[in-house]
Design a protein that fits this description.
three-stranded antiparallel sheet, 6 helices, 157 residues
Length: 157
């Protein structure tokens, strides 16, 4: 979704709950929509400062919280308590290599069988979108001398 469409969509959601689109909110959305991938709040605050130095870091955190509540931005808990954010799109999951830290987007369908089994056997409805699955990427599993450098995200395969 382009920045203008994202801002317009978010403004509608904000108005529906009695809020308004502020300069800080618009700037955070612009910073996120211009950078696909998964970013920490600190990184996003840096991107926002490049666009508008007048937006305070605490405003960025509040915007991210609001956008997460609205479903416009998805937050994902990755290794060691870190949280990353990205513009919400078609549901996907995240897998993180515990060796090199690489974060990969994977289709939500990879856990469909597990989700069905949890629901049928335990009455538990799975929502795996807020956490990253942990494992080892192919490069690290092969023991390559130089595993991939952690990247913001790799597109679903």
């Amino acid at each position: 979704m382009d920045t203008a469409a994202l801002v317009a969509h978010t403004a509608e959601l904000l108005r529906a709950r009695g809020d308004r689109m502020t300069t800080a909110r618009r700037t955070v959305l612009a910073a996120l929509s211009g950078r696909p991938g998964h970013w920490t709040a600190e990184e996003i605050a840096g991107f926002v400062a490049e666009l508008d130095a007048g937006v305070h870091r605490s405003s960025v955190y509040r915007c991210l919280e609001t956008f997460s509540e609205l479903g416009v931005v998805q937050h994902v808990h990755v290794g060691h308590g870190t949280t990353v954010y990205h513009v919400a799109d078609v549901g996907h999951l995240h897998a993180q290599c515990r060796t090199c830290g690489r974060l990969v987007d994977v289709p939500a369908s990879v856990l469909q069988d597990a989700a069905r089994a949890l629901a049928a056997d335990h009455g538990f409805i799975l929502d795996a979108t807020h956490v990253a699955l942990s494992g080892t990427c192919a490069a690290c599993a092969e023991g390559s001398a130089s595993p991939p450098t952690p990247t913001p995200a790799d597109p679903p395969g």
